[in-house]
Write a structure and sequence with these properties.
InterPro entries: PAP2/HPO (IPR000326), PAP2/HPO_sf (IPR036938). With about 230 residues, the protein is mainly alpha-helical. Helices cover about 70% and strands about 0% of the residues.
């Protein structure tokens, strides 16, 4: 199978996800795909790190590793892979762009392969899942990453293959950064296994996981209300 065949299949799959001609959904997706929408999530993750670690060194190591996830995932995707692959975004590809539905005339001009959104969100999801070791949090963060990935297909700014490869990159980066964190953390603190319904196996309070869920629910309520307000012009 040559690249043109892969490109054709990729575009056909994209059409299943791309656009809906629904104004409310358009605005909802625009909010979901924005990094600013998820600032409350990042803040609450920082808060639970502070609440569940005793020293400034421990907190600094975790925050630094979270930044490393973004630095490596985004840096590899944007700085290395995209310039080498030089693949047009579907919404800006001269061959298919007029067959792609766009929202608010969003036609990004940089390259498409692979998706930095997918890489960044999946790297964060994997790192914090390994850090906290809560099934609920793991499911939630992976779902959050997948929602971000879906928005990129809906908006026509990435092909499915861009998303899949970005997610794989994020998984690798998140795992490697966690392994680095774990090695450094063991030098700073003794490894303690928690056996309690109140804490995860790595010592994170289960009530703090509920805090994350609450923030995410409120964020989704905001996104929905924002979409309705923008559609009605209130």
């Amino acid at each position: 199978m040559d690249f043109s065949s892969i490109q054709d299949i990729d575009f056909q799959i994209l059409q299943w996800f791309n656009g809906s001609n629904n104004v409310i959904l358009d605005q909802l997706v625009m909010a979901l795909t924005s990094g600013f929408t998820w600032i409350p999530l990042y803040l609450v993750l920082f808060i639970i790190v502070m609440r569940n670690n005793e020293t400034v060194g421990q907190i600094g190591l975790i925050v630094g590793c979270a930044f490393l996830c973004i630095l490596f995932a985004d840096g590899i995707a944007e700085g290395i892979i995209k310039p080498l692959a030089a693949r047009w975004r579907p919404s800006n590809d001269p061959l298919v762009k007029y067959s792609v539905q766009v929202v608010d005339n969003l036609r990004l001009k940089d390259y498409s392969f692979c998706s930095a959104h997918a890489a960044n969100t999946m790297a964060i999801a994997v790192f914090f899942s390994l850090l906290v070791r809560s099934r609920l949090l793991t499911f939630t963060l992976v779902a959050w990453s997948l929602v971000n990935c879906w928005t990129r297909l809906y908006l026509g700014v990435h092909y499915p293959l861009d998303i899949v490869c970005g997610m794989l990159l994020g998984m690798v980066v998140g795992t490697l950064v966690y392994l680095f964190f774990h090695r450094m953390y063991r030098r700073m603190s003794p490894e303690i296994k928690y056996v309690s319904n109140q804490y995860t196996s790595t010592g994170y309070d289960c009530d703090d996981i509920d805090m994350i869920m609450t923030v995410l629910m409120l964020t989704l309520v905001y996104v929905i209300l924002r979409a309705v307000v923008l559609m009605t012009g209130l």
